[in-house]
Amino acid sequence: MQELHDAPLAPLTTFRLGGPATRLITATTDAEVIAAVREADDSGTPLLLIGGGSNLVIGDKGFDGTALRIATKGFSLDGTTLELAAGEVWTDAVARTVEAGLAGIECLAGIPGSAGATPIQNVGAYGQEVSSTITEVIAYDRTAGETVTLTNAECAFSYRHSGFKADPERYVVLRVRFALEEAQGLSGPVKYAETARALGVERGERVPLAVARETVLKLRAGKGMVLDPEDHDTWSAGSFFTNPILTDEEFAAFHARVKERLGEEAQPPAYAAGDGHTKTSAAWLIDKAGFTKGYGTGPARISTKHTLALTNRGGATTEDLLALAREVVAGVHEAFGVTLVNEPVTVGVSL
């Protein structure tokens, strides 16, 4: 277990932003993770968990406490059952399941970060969510002081949310188990319209696993959503805001604002999101509020490839990023009456 003091955290995040931690511990086994967590809890030391750093916005002052980088390794396939250690690189794990001919997470290719973070955010993209394949999460329960196994139902998954996210101080994810599908080398049914168009198939059809994965990687790369150190559009947290889910009353008011601003023929994106709720597109809202691709003049700007990504163009500070985020939130609310919610976890700062 490696320990550093006054350690830079920016290099551990995809934004490449944030100040140092008082102490940084890198744990490579579950036992080391648990020991570090117990030590921090017993001493009352603030604790920051870091996986792939792809969903973190750390304040410029850094973190006054112990930052624990989870770098555990473990990839195990038993038939169609997959178990991943929390520190496994997610996109590498997806590639290995495709090579093994198993469907279920192939459309989640290219998503940066670690396996342990996927249940927390209920990671999803291109028609798949991890909640559809996760069977169990093994975690250290900081309240009970013991390792527990949580079923899918106990994880309380919903859109980009989970029980882990709702109670972030309680659990430390150690391992995640998935039930994948043997479909004779084919993907799961293609659910997302953009993916279907790119593949040249109808929604509900299956395609070769490798083709599905490669297509998703190309779609993501075209939006700056596949990490590339030479491309500042990928110095981001991917989608910075979640797609708003509105009640029927809220959507009606929003729809009226859209027509008032954009004309009677304007139709905002609308997707069913459960009884009495409709989901709309954060990217559409941002663009129609006047924040187009590449918006900004400072070192933090909207991606040149996708309006939903806020980026560090090099030399930015966290405050630069937050100023841009606040400008976007205020502009969208003024235009459409909808308040965007940030997807990344903020540390020592807030919008």
Short descriptors:
351 residues; alpha+beta; 9 helices; 27% helix; 25% strand; globular
- Could you name the ranges where pLDDT drops below 50 across 5 or more consecutive residues? none
The rounded distance between the terminal residues' Cα atoms is: 34 Å
Number of E-type strands: 20
Radius of gyration: 20 Å
Q: Please bin the fraction of helical residues.
A: 25-40%
Q: How many H/I helices?
A: 9
Order of secondary-structure elements: EEHEEEEEHEHEEEEHEEHHEHEEHEEHE
- The quaternary organization reads as single chain
* Mean pLDDT across all amino acids: 97
Task: Write up this protein.
The two termini are 34 Å apart. This protein is 27% helix and 25% strand. It has a 5-stranded antiparallel sheet. Strand 18 and strand 19 form a beta hairpin. By secondary structure, it is α+β, with helices and mostly antiparallel strands. The chain is built from 9 helices and 20 strands.
Topology of this protein?
Elements: E1 2-8, E2 20-27, H1 30-43, E3 47-50, E4 56-58, E5 63-70, E6 75-78, E7 81-85, H2 90-99, E8 102-103, H3 118-121, E9 124-125, E10 128-129, E11 134-141, E12 146-151, H4 163-166, E13 171-179, E14 181-182, H5 193-199, H6 209-222, E15 245-247, H7 248-262, E16 271-272, E17 277-279, H8 282-288, E18 300-302, E19 310-312, H9 318-336, E20 345-347
